[in-house]
Design brief:
This protein has helices at 30-48, 52-58, 132-144; strands spanning 10-16, 60-71, 80-90, 94-103, 109-121, 126-127. The chain has 175 residues and is of the alpha+beta class.
């Protein structure tokens, strides 16, 4: 179980678990963790100047191309939470960011989400380079995060440690 600690990254979003977000296990459904993280992405993009109005005016936006979520503790009905973000890396066309979700009442880390996003020219729906002004804002936020530790959840690979079966094996009893 996750334990309380100091929140890492810049806070980008705050929310509360809504009744419609509760699943049959009586905790927040996985889809709503992703929704909350995505709202955090939108809030970070706002800091870069990427808003709905900017997207409409420039025909530039981002597409998520990969995400990896870890679930470490439960959120329940009416729990308040907040999401933080860190830029792990970026280049002329991509940004690799990492988010953490904390339960607001006790600071427990409840989930994380690692994202790879591409900048896209919507007029041709192709990957493009960041506009200079957006890239400058990304650089400024990234510079403020220099020296932070790499998140232990980032870049992890899913695996069963001692599997009874893997796709590489012939399934027992298949002969």
């Amino acid at each position: 179980m996750a334990t309380p600690g100091r929140a890492t990254g810049i806070e980008v979003y705050r929310g509360r678990v809504e009744p419609g977000w509760i699943d049959v296990n009586q905790h927040m459904n996985v889809a709503y963790y992703v929704l909350a993280f995505d709202l955090g992405v939108d809030a970070l993009w706002s800091r870069f100047g990427i808003t709905a109005e900017w997207i409409a005016a420039t025909q530039g936006s981002t597409f998520a191309v990969e995400a990896h979520v870890t679930y470490q503790a439960e959120l329940n009905l009416d729990d308040e939470f907040f999401v933080t973000s860190e830029i792990l890396a970026f280049d002329a066309k991509r940004i690799h960011q990492f988010q953490r979700m904390y339960r607001a009442s006790d600071g427990v880390l409840v989930a994380s989400c690692e994202w790879m996003n591409l900048f896209v020219d919507l007029s041709i729906r192709k990957v493009a380079e960041w506009p200079a002004d957006v890239l400058a804002r990304i650089r400024a936020i990234a510079k403020a995060q220099c020296g932070s530790e790499w998140p232990p959840e980032a870049g992890r690979r899913m695996a069963v440690r001692e599997p009874y079966f893997t796709l590489h094996d012939e399934y027992p009893g298949s002969r």
